[in-house]
Amino acid sequence: MKVREVITYKHYFEEFFAAQNQKVRDKIIKILSIIETIERVPVQYLKFIEGTNGLFEVRVQVGSNIFRIFCFFDGNKFVVLLSGFQKKTQKTPSGEIERAVKLMNEYYKEKEEDK
Q1: Long-range CB contacts (< 8 A, 24+ apart) of 66-73?
Q2: In a structure prediction context, what are the per-residue pLDDT tens digits for the chain, which is 115 residues long?
Q3: φ and ψ at residue 49, rounded to 5 degrees
């Protein structure tokens, strides 16, 4: 049973997902399923990004390749996926975080305008 629903914002996640090989896509699907069904998601799969206003990263590892997908919670029921990238350095690039924060703010602005 789902405790929350994973949704996407615009086309950013879909483009990232489509560019990955089948093994990576399968792992992403598995982790997103865990996020949807487990009440308390382990930090190994979903981690808060310090210094942001509610931004998280979905953590995916396939062999020695590491991927991150930015997301945030909209209320208690939705996890909104933003952009993804392959991590090649120890630290998440600040440009990627800034882009994700911008997308998250854009989402909330559009949601407010739709009311």
Answers
A1: 67/20, 67/24, 67/28, 68/92, 68/96, 69/13, 69/16, 69/28, 70/96, 70/97, 70/100, 70/103, 70/104, 71/6, 71/46, 72/104, 72/107, 73/4
A2: 899 999 999 999 999 999 999 999 999 999 999 999 999 999 999 999 999 999 999 999 999 999 999 999 999 889 999 999 999 988 889 999 999 999 999 999 999 998 7
A3: -95, 115
Cα separations in angstroms, 46 against 31, 64, 65, 109: 9, 18, 17, 25
Q: Which whole-number Å values give the CA distances from 40 to 31, 60, 86, in the listed order?
A: 13, 17, 25
Global pTM reads: 0.94
Q: How far apart are the first and last CA of the chain?
A: 30
| CA pair distance 38, 85, nearest whole angstrom | 24
Q: Is the distance from CB of 76 to CB of 4 less than 8 angstroms?
A: yes
